[in-house]
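R.M. (postdoc): so does anyone remember the format we settled on? I'll just put the structure tokens first.
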């Protein structure tokens, strides 16, 4: 199963793509979708949508995890992240890909065992899960990979709740 994790942002969107086969997960791709800041709001969102569609076409994810918005003191940034997130959810829905929306606390708790972990701890655990060097990846990308890892275990979590 191919799983895409997305960490929405106002200037850049982190993404991570993993493959889960039985109990083994491996990293296929990870990076940033950069939102051009010189363009109008509408053009920024169209650019993000086109980049996301390219990733979907290339990797054909079977499910996607998207981080929920956390409250921010900067309302302008919060609105921009919400707009990006809206385009992401719209695009995934149009492509009929199942979406799992996760709070930052849920991701941190699932990856590290502590919902208040910092980005360094999340990166360290992502590195351990995937046998990669976290220093090679930017925080937004590591967060997106962590989201994908959590989603890869969603069937197991759902089955335990039934």
């Amino acid at each position: 199963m191919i799983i895409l994790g997305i960490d929405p942002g106002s200037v850049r969107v982190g993404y991570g793509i993993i493959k889960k086969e039985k109990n083994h997960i491996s990293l296929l791709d990870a990076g940033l979708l950069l939102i051009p800041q010189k363009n109008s709001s509408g053009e920024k969102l169209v650019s993000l949508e086109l980049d996301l569609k390219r990733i979907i076409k290339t990797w054909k994810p079977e499910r996607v995890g998207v981080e929920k918005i956390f409250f921010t003191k900067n309302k302008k940034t919060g609105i921009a992240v919400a707009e990006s997130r809206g385009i992401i959810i719209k695009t995934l829905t149009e492509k009929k890909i199942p979406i799992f929306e996760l709070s930052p606390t849920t991701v941190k708790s699932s990856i590290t065992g502590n919902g208040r972990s910092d980005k360094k701890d999340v990166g360290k655990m992502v590195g351990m899960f995937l046998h990669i060097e976290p220093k090679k990846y930017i925080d937004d990308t590591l967060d997106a990979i962590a989201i994908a890892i959590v989603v890869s275990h969603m069937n197991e979590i759902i089955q335990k709740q039934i």
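R.M.: ...and that's the designed sequence above, right after the tokens. Also worth knowing: The chain has six helices and five strands. The radius of gyration is 15 Å.
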